């Protein structure tokens, strides 16, 4: 299964152009000899999607995925938010980014489950 076949629905929901996704994916260390559903490739694809939706350089909240070597999970994710003292515009921007992070979480953790991958929140708990 190709990257586009595997993540096409999520790209559509997130309004990410296939060309943008493939362009961003070129700089990631995919194992081209392994299926997209292999945890390392799955993690890389998720991180490409996350970077396109909530880029590290411009977002107040983000989500990232990593391969996990635990018995109870193969993939883990972490959500982060900046911490600062600021005004209303910061809270509005943080809220908008947090909403995007929650959407990414629902889509990508759900995708992992449909592909048979067990996912763990770094704060604890397995999905």
Describe this structure in words.
48% of the residues lie in helices and 17% in strands. The protein has four helices and three strands. The chain has helices at 3-13, 18-25, 39-53, 88-114; strands at 61-70, 73-81, 119-121. Helix 4 (88-114) links the parallel strand 2 (73-81) and strand 3. The model has no long low-confidence stretch (mean pLDDT 88).
Keywords:
single chain, alpha+beta, 4 helices, globular
What is the structure about, briefly put?
This protein has 127 residues and is of the alpha+beta class. The protein has helices at residues 3-13, 18-25, 39-53, 88-114; strands at 61-70, 73-81, 119-121. The longest helix is centred in the C-terminal third of the chain and has 27 residues, at 88-114.
Radius of gyration: 15 Å
| Coarse morphology | globular
The side-by-side strand order for the widest beta sheet comes to 1-2-3
Strand count, sense and closure of the main sheet? 3 strands, mixed
Oligomer: single chain
Draw up the topology in text.
Elements: H1 3-13, H2 18-25, H3 39-53, E1 61-70, E2 73-81, H4 88-114, E3 119-121
Parallel strand pairs: 2-3
Antiparallel strand pairs: 1-2
Helix pairs in contact: 2-3, 3-4
């Amino acid at each position: 299964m190709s990257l586009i076949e595997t993540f096409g629905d999520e790209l559509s929901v997130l309004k990410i152009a296939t060309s943008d996704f493939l362009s961003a994916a070129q700089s990631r260390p995919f194992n081209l000899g392994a299926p997209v559903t292999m945890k390392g490739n799955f993690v890389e694809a998720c991180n490409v999607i996350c970077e396109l939706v909530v880029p590290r350089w411009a977002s107040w909240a983000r989500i990232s995925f990593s391969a996990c070597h635990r018995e109870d999970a193969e993939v883990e994710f972490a959500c982060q938010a900046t911490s600062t003292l600021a005004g209303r515009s910061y809270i509005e921007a943080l809220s908008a980014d947090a909403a995007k992070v929650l959407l990414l979480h629902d889509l990508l953790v759900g995708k992992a489950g449909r592909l048979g991958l067990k996912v763990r929140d770094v704060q604890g708990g397995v999905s």
